[in-house]
Amino acid sequence: MPSRKFADGEVVMGRWPGSVLYYEVQVTSYDDVAHLYTVKYKDGTELALKESDIRSQSSFKHRKSQSSSSSPSRRSSSRSRSRSRSPGRPAKGRRRSASQSREHKDDKKKTIQETSLALPVLKPSENNTKRYNGEPESTEKNDTSCIVLEQKLKPDLEIKHVLEQYSLRSRKDDKKKEDIYSEKKTFVAVKPIEKVPSKTKELEFGGRIGTFTLILLLPATVLYLLLMCKQDDPSLLNFPPLPALESLWEGRVFVVFLLWFFLQAVFYLLPIGKVVEGLPLSSGRKLQYRINGFYAFIFTAAAIGVLLYFQFELHYLYDHFMQFAVSAAAFSLALSIYLYARSLKAPEEELAPGGNSGYFIYDFFTGHELNPRIGNFDLKYFCELRPGLIGWVVINLAMLLAEMKIHNLSVPSLSMVLVNSFQLLYVVDALWNEEAVLTTMDITHDGFGFMLAFGDLVWVPFVYSLQAFYLVGHPTTITWPVAAAITVLNCIGYYIFRSANSQKNNFRRNPADPKLANLKFIPTATGKGLLVTGWWGFVRHPNYLGDIIMALAWSLPCGFNHILPYFYVIYFICLLVHREARDEHHCKQKYGLAWERYCQRVPYRIFPYIY
């Protein structure tokens, strides 16, 4: 076992990972297994550094005293004094003997050789976890804006002081150093390096065969569920008869769906709401998004109110529910074909990292282009929350009105009220916190193909509303105490879901926020931190846990006569477990050793003490 070089409590100079800057640090401990020193900076930051990234203070002082010209501060003062001299008079210190020149050249070569150890090639588009063993490097894998130490470094005056005191650069590199560390910058920057996405090698969803199966299976599943809800006995063994093909299509219904889609597009284009930037792309560019989903919901509610005022029968949706689902599926298929066709002409840097396999079926399903746009109209971002999510609420309302009409009720049933209220809260919350969707895997990693197009436009509005659709044909009576218990369960799930997401989003937006001072995290090679306190220290995906609890609360008002209304919660558990596995795989690749340390600190994935 190699012996350690620095003792606990020793004050040394530690290089900040990903930079050329050395700061005064104190050694606090040493890991004999990983061979890493835990050091503490003056601002209280604790990091784990390799022995090669630590130098004794004497080595810095020795190089500083070797030559009077090695200090940037002395050179700058010399230049300022030379302005008063005559042009013909040589500057002080310019004359030296031949032996002094040779000594200076030897020192210079030595300095350059030593400096090369502390000047790694910065590749902001890569995750150098192998080099730093999962410890902070302060470069984003997806943030190729090449900003290094953006939030961790001191103000520019302190940076300049450190550079003057501990210079590792030769005299010829002095001008380059002044160009890089200008007074206008508060961080060290290098020239951006554009990353060309490589081919997708690891295929998900069962590869080409799996994705082809899903393209056929997903529409068939929606059709099966809706046919089952229409039956008097929706048990699994009672397979519904297949309807005639002509009964599944109606032109007027398709026109109504198109009007709905383009109405939401008009609301999306309204110049209201703030404009924010998304996460940096592989080229370093940040796309802009207008946050006005909640306004679109308000305008939609007003439009529905006007229709009801003029006695428009909204239960038309219930009467033609199957035709609406087929129309949405046909539209999503046409949209997917258009998206794939246009992606063939998209630049390499605009392709999705997970949908660039070169296989037609796989890329068509997962999405070949990451952020397809028509001008400033972002197709994926628009479909993520608008037509499907808001349409889900409208469908629920239509089912409530249909229940009242079919069963001659003056007020809707308590079960229907609970389902509508719980799911309305979920949708309003998503639209109110619309900006948070910009950091999700759907936006940052997945391309826009059949998977998201069908999921946003068909699966969400027509499967997520299954409980309300079921209650129209199979009314269920529940007591007030049972309704109160279900409400408490939904509130618990919502609290976990919202507080966990808020904690994560606030930490991502501003880790230095004083309100988050009580949160502890593990630093990573990308510059981000992995929370190990709060909800994220309880399980690795507390938002998924809250989601599943809410899904159960949505199904309970339907009673226990049939398993069909529980399809949503069963499917949702499978979906989130699969998504958690995808997250786990990507995080392990992205964060390296830091993710393994996080998993040791937080062993449970979704369900505490179970999974």
List the main descriptive attributes of the protein structure presented here:
single chain; elongated; 611 residues; 3 domains; alpha+beta; SH3 type barrels; five-stranded antiparallel β-sheet
Question: Can you describe what's shown?
Answer:
- The chain has helices at residues 57-66, 72-82, 98-117, 129-132, 156-165, 174-180, 207-230, 251-269, 293-309, 316-319, 321-343, 360-366, 379-406, 414-432, 441-444, 450-463, 466-473, 480-509, 542-555, 567-591, 593-601, and strands spanning 11-15, 22-31, 36-41, 46-49, 54-55, 147-148, 188-189, 274-277, 288-291, 373-374, 377-378, 521-523, 529-531.
- By secondary structure, the protein is α+β, with helices and mostly antiparallel strands.
- The chain has three domains: 10-58, SH3 type barrels, CATH 2.30.30.140; 211-474, no CATH class; 478-610, no CATH class.
- A hairpin with a 6-residue loop joins strand 1 and strand 2.
- The model is unreliable at 62-105 and 108-196 (pLDDT under 50).
